[in-house]
TrEMBL record:
The keyword Protein biosynthesis does not apply. It comes from the Bacteria. This is Class II glutamine amidotransferase. It comes from Cellulomonas chengniuliangii. Gene3D superfamilies: Glutamine Phosphoribosylpyrophosphate, subunit 1, domain 1. The lineage of its organism: Bacteria, Bacillati, Actinomycetota, Actinomycetes, Micrococcales.
């Protein structure tokens, strides 16, 4: 199962150190079964997206998979890919960039010929460089944002509603970022997605316990930040990354938006069930394998 990570650091950039694969002892064994690529996306001082990604089998390139990335941004997105659609190439590795936005996805869509016909109808098929369902879904979101004047939240809902109603779907968990905003979607309830709101001590009760240095870790994605020791932040991840009791699993169909104020605005605007739901047995072996949970895969 692909691993998603998103973080919003508020109104000013935060420095963070990130690792994409952090279990070197079992890395080779695990990656032969799972990891097909890793990537991180942030935004530079002028708001331009910066993406550092590579298609890998980690036993071939441990250095890239385990090296620390020193980053500074207001928003962050990271992804560890277990490929379901498309070859293990750079163009198929997440996160993807379109119109200055970044997206990473966990799940499977089918009926890509139908989706491509819709993209051609909307004049955005040229945005697609690779073979993945994820990039095609992103192109539909981008098309809807262009059509509605740049309202990304509305574009996500319109695009995903079209997908839910028109093509077979197993899961569509996404993290989408701009220089100042983050959206997360869990749909339907196939895969988990968690949110953690870390409070700020700045301007608040100085006697209240303040957050420890941000240090969150899984075998797949880890982050550490001294900058965010007392500043607030919001993290979205496929699994809880530490023992903080504030982690909550997003609801099925929940769309969460985080702006510069770090308030999480949640809604449930999507159809309650896919019109053409898929189960694991409906997927080809490679896609089915990619969607297995970490517990199932070991």
């Amino acid at each position: 199962m692909c691993r998603l990570f998103g973080m919003h650091a508020g109104r000013t950039p935060a420095r963070a150190t990130m690792w994409l694969l952090t279990d070197p002892d079992s890395l080779a064994q695990q990656s032969r079964r799972e990891a097909d690529g890793t990537g991180i996306g942030v935004f530079g001082p002028g708001g331009a997206p910066i993406v550092d990604k590579q298609p890998i089998a980690a036993y071939e390139d441990k250095a890239f998979a385990t090296e620390a990335r020193e980053l500074e941004s207001r928003t962050f997105v990271a992804h560890v890919r277990y490929a379901s659609t498309g070859a293990n190439t750079l163009v198929n590795t997440h996160p993807f960039e379109q119109d200055g936005r970044l997206l990473a996805h966990n799940g499977v869509l089918q009926g890509l010929d139908v989706l491509e016909a819709r993209l051609r109808e909307l004049g955005v098929m040229g945005l697609v460089r690779g073979q993945t369902d994820s990039e095609r879904m992103f192109a539909l979101i981008t098309a809807e944002a262009r059509r509605n004047g740049g309202d990304v939240g509305a574009a996500i809902v319109t695009a995903l509603t079209w997908i839910i109603e028109n093509i077979p779907l197993y899961a569509a968990n996404i993290v989408l970022t701009t220089p100042s905003e983050l959206w997360a979607v869990r749909y339907p309830d196939t895969h988990p997605l968690y949110v953690l709101e870390r409070p700020s001590r700045e301007g608040g009760d100085q006697n209240a316990p303040h957050p420890a240095r941000l240090e969150a870790r899984t075998r797949r994605i880890s982050v550490r930040s001294d900058t965010l020791a007392e500043r607030g932040s919001v993290i979205v991840a496929t699994e809880p990354m530490d023992s903080d009791p504030g982690w909550r699993q997003m609801g099925a169909g929940e769309v969460a938006h985080v702006g510069e104020d770090l308030h999480v605005h949640s809604s449930a605007p999507l159809p309650p069930r896919p019109a053409h739901p898929l189960s694991l047995k409906d997927l080809e072996p490679r896609a089915a394998s990619s969607q297995q949970s970490s517990a199932a895969r070991g």
